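Suppose you are handed a protein chain with no further information: no name, no annotation, nothing but its sequence. What can you learn? This example shows the usual starting point.
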Amino acid sequence: MTRPPGHGAAEGAAHAIGFSWQRVSALMLRHLYILMRSWPRVLDLAYWPTVQMLLWGFITVFFQQHSSWVAEAAGVLISAVLLWDVLFRANLGLSLSFLEEMWARNLGQLFVSPMRPSELVAAMSLLSLIRTLISVSPAAVLALPLFDVWVFSLGPPLAAFFANLLVLGWTVGLVVSALVLRLGLGAENLAWVLIFAIAPLSGIYYPIETLPAWLQPVSWALPSAYVFEGMRAVLFDDTFRWDLLAGALALNAVYFAAAVAFFLRMIHVARERGLLLQQGE
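A reasonable first move is to predict its three-dimensional structure. Written in C-alpha cells, the prediction is:
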C-alpha cells in the first residue's frame, strides 16, 4: 500500500511534538559535560553558600560579643556597605570592560591595531573609575535623607579609603581578566567569585580581631583590611591611622604591579597561542 505524499513528514512532526525524555537527557548531558570541564563553574555552585555562611557567621559572632557596637556608631554599617561597593564596582568595572570585548569577539581587532596592552590596562582602569563613581554616588547621597548617614563626614580620609579600594578592585579585575583570557569564557564567573572571596577576610562589618587567630595574618595581607579598620578608627575614635594607610598603600603597590605583569604576560601567551581569535567556553 502506497502512503500518501507527505505522510512520513507529518508522522515525524507529530512524533517531534510529543514529550521525549531522550531529548531531555541529551540536553542535560550537554550541559553536564560543559559543567564538568569548567572548574570555575563547579566552584561557583558551592562557593556562594560558603561565603555567605562565613560572612554572616563572623558578623553574628561579633554582635554577640559587642551588642552595643551599632548604637555607638549608627552609620558604621552603612559606611562599610558603601566602601565595600567601591571595591566591588571597581573590580566589575574593569573586568566587565574586558569581558565585553571578549563577548563581542573584538580582542583580535584591538590587537592588530597600534594599541599597546598597557594602554588597554589604562583605559579599563579609567572606565572602572567612571563606572564606580556612577554606581556609588546615588547610594551615598540617598543614605542621608533615608538613614541620616553622610558618608562624606569621614572627611579627607574618605579619599584615601576610596583610592585604596579602587586600586585593589583594579588588581582583582586584572587577575580575573587574565584568567578568563587564558581559560576562556567558561571562567567569567571569576569576576564575582574572586572579589567576594576576600569579603569575609576584609573586616567590612567587624574588626579583624573577630576572626580566628590563625586567619588574622591572612586578613592583614589584604589592603582592604587596613581600609576598613581605618574607617572604624575614624568613626569610633575620630582618629586617622596613618600606619593603616601606609600598610594599605604598600600592599596595593605590590599587588597592582604583580597583577599588571600577570595580565601583560597572559596577553603575550594569548598572542603566541592564537587565543585572541578563539575565545569560547
